[in-house]
Specification:
The protein is mostly helical. It contains 8 helices and no strands. It has one domain (3-168).
């Protein structure tokens, strides 16, 4: 593959799929600076992966796998640097994004951010309409495990949403 072909594929993939990449970035990085860093990491990994793409899965599935794996690795690396910082330390950043957005969406992202990496990944994949089979393939777990986890995540979010003040939006 020539560099020109790689660049063309890269630009096409990025223009078609950047929305879900941003969604993943927002779920794994809490500050604007961290979101920029993580987005760049994902883009770099995407660039390097283009020559190894064998078309055994869809481009979307491939990019999801790259984005989620990069995000999980990035999170573990960043956690070492910010071990004392919790999500409460980033709460002001999350609150700043409420301007002009639906409070329920902000609440949902806050709750997704509190999930562990696998549950967070499953939730994002579920919100984007991936099948259990596709999720299992992306995450390297069984379809039945995906189903069990989705059921638990839904119950957890439903329970928390009942305590959320939807009228104070």
């Amino acid at each position: 593959m020539t560099e020109k072909e790689q660049k063309q594929i890269f630009e096409e993939w990025l223009s078609q799929h950047k929305a879900f990449i941003f969604k993943i970035v927002r779920a794994y990085a809490f500050t604007v600076m961290d979101q920029d860093d993580l987005f760049q990491e994902i883009i770099i990994q995407t660039w390097h992966s283009i020559p190894t793409f064998r078309k055994e899965s869809s481009v979307t599935t491939w990019l999801y796998r790259i984005s989620l794996n990069t995000s999980i690795k990035w999170t573990k690396k960043e956690r070492k640097h910010y071990q004392s910082e919790t999500i409460d330390g980033a709460k002001h950043i999350l609150e700043e994004t409420k301007i002009g957005t639906d409070g329920r969406l902000t609440w949902l992202y806050e709750e997704i951010c509190k999930l562990d990496e696998i549950d967070r990944s499953i939730t994002l994949l579920m919100l984007d309409g991936f099948s259990y089979k596709e999720m299992a393939s992306i995450l390297g777990i069984s379809e039945s495990n995906v189903g069990v986890k989705i059921n638990r995540i839904k119950k957890q979010l439903i329970s928390k949403s009942k305590k959320y003040d939807h009228h104070g939006i």
